[in-house]
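A favour, since you know our structure tokens better than I do. Would you make up a two-line entry for one protein for me to read? Write everything out right here, beneath this request.
=====
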Amino acid sequence: MDDEKDVIINICKYIYSNWISKAESQRDFASKCGIEESTVRRIKNIALGTSKTDYNMSLKTLIKICQKKQMTLEDFFGNIDR
């Protein structure tokens, strides 16, 4: 997993499969995390392979999601490597 696009895809897949897909709705997930619904859609589309991987999620967005899920960035990235 050393290609930049693979990392982006794996991050999006993790967020989508563990959190977004289990949320009441994309809008609900976005609202609870304090991020834009368009960001959630972008993450979902990359995870499902229906969008290009040229999206670079900001660290601020990732921090907001992790804080809402009570997960440290260290734990998050530890899970991505698995």
Notes: The radius of gyration is 12 Å.
